[in-house]
Design a protein that fits this description.
Largest sheet: 7 strands, mixed
CATH superfamily of the largest domain: Type I PLP-dependent aspartate aminotransferase-like (Major domain)
Order of helices and strands: EEEHHHEHEHHEHEEEHEHEEHHHEEHEEH
Structural class: alpha/beta
CATH class of the largest domain: Alpha Beta
CATH architecture of the largest domain: 3-Layer(aba) Sandwich
Low-confidence stretches: none
Strand order of the largest sheet: 4-12-11-10-7-5-6
Radius of gyration: 20 Å
Helix content: 25-40%
Number of strands: 16
Number of helices: 14
Length: about 375
């Protein structure tokens, strides 16, 4: 028996090095990484600016908990808030740092319960929000939630993108409504703008907290700091993680001034959340995204991918920016293996016909050409 517990079915080869938009196995073979370590490597692998920032911070102060005021933590919070509102003010003013997307959603849902005094949630069919107890309560994935059903909070799951269902539901007992602007695990299913606005309006009318789970859609991936700005939505809370610190464990709960004012010292807590290393990596990540114009590049790369896959076995490309799906009726699994054999890594989804692209925001034209060539050679 291996000393390491198996979680996901691993790739059939170990990865030992990463550079830019590529990873390398122990035989030195290169793979263009359209999976991005599951949407994490936002500025690519081993970016010199990220490595330098981590090394510099490690030599100054490797760790201290939130029991102390650590300047780099304060700077990271201020910078993240400024970044979130940089392409249109979405009203978020404060941040709680944690370690993952699941933790961010756990804390966001707890905040909603505390400030509303309610204990019921509303989520949506196909939503995926993490493996903590409250995130499992709102996640639509019975194979991972069923064993813990007795422990889970009450949640009503409404149909996705169904404005009539939202209109017809009484939200008055709801603590929070949580949704992903683009459902990733479900097979890259974007919310329509009118649907998001309807959900936002109905939540506000009932005094329910609106939580946008932007663990995958945030940090520039859709061509905007967060999907909220792209859609013109002002949520009460955004949860973020994945690419926020280029691979160092980090999550964040961004909230409005009104929400933050309801919290008292001790309501939230963490040992490792907002570690100096992660905060230094976050600051460097946002620097790279802005200075290298990676939000703009994400939209350019999206257009190139769409153009070069026309006329292939890919029947549809849902999504936006660099969170894209490849719909391949009846043959997605076979295409995924073909791509892997051709030196291109992509992700699967719970939709057996949809593969996912979540590459670094600085994905190269060479990588896009390799992806298109491999798909065109698929028989």
């Amino acid at each position: 028996m291996s000393a390491l517990v198996t979680t996901y079915l691993p790739l059939p080869f170990p990865l030992v090095k990463g550079r830019g938009d590529c990873v390398f196995d122990d035989q030195g073979r290169r793979y263009f990484d359209f999976y991005g370590g599951h949407c994490v490597c936002s500025v690519g692998h081993a970016h010199s600016k990220i490595a330098e920032a981590i090394g510099r911070q490690a030599r100054e102060l490797l760790f201290y908990s939130s029991a102390a005021d650590v300047p780099v933590r304060r700077q990271a919070a201020e910078r993240l808030v400024a970044f979130a509102n940089s392409r249109g003010d979405i009203g978020l003013r404060s941040v709680f740092f944690c370690n993952s997307g699941s933790e961010a959603n756990e804390n966001a849902l707890k905040i909603a319960v505390k400030i509303t005094g309610r204990t019921r949630f509303v989520a949506f069919e196909g939503g995926w929000h993490g493996r903590g107890t409250l995130p499992l309560s709102v996640t639509d994935d019975p194979k991972i939630s069923k064993p813990y059903s007795a422990l889970l909070a009450k949640c009503t799951r409404l149909p996705w993108n169904d404005e009539e269902a939202v209109n017809g539901f009484a939200f008055e007992e709801t603590a929070a409504v949580i949704l992903e602007p683009v459902q990733s695990m479900a097979g890259i299913r974007p919310a329509s703008q009118s649907f998001l606005r309807k959900v936002s309006a109905r939540a506000a009318e009932a005094g329910a907290v609106l939580i946008l789970d932007e663990v995958q859609t945030g940090i520039g991936r859709l061509g905007a700091p967060f999907a909220a700005a792209k859609y013109g939505i002002r949520p009460d809370i955004i949860s973020s993680a994945k690419g926020i610190a280029s691979g160092l464990p980090m999550g964040a709960v961004l909230m409005t001034e009104r929400i933050a004012a309801e919290l008292e010292p001790g309501d939230l807590g963490t040992t490792f959340g907002g570690s100096p290393l992660a905060c230094a990596a976050l600051l460097a990540t946002l620097d790279v995204i802005e200075k290298e114009k990676l939000m703009e590049h994400a939209l350019t790369a999206e257009n190139h991918i769409r153009d070069r896959l026309r006329g292939t076995c890919v029947s549809e490309i849902p999504g936006a920016g660099l969170l894209l799906g490849l719909r391949v009726p009846n043959r997605a699994a076979a295409l995924k293996k073909h791509l892997q054999d051709s030196g291109v890594l992509v992700g699967a989804s719970s939709d057996p016909e949809v593969l996912r692209l979540m590459p670094p925001l600085n994905i190269s034209d060479e990588a896009i050409t390799a992806l298109a060539s491999a798909i065109r050679s698929f028989q």
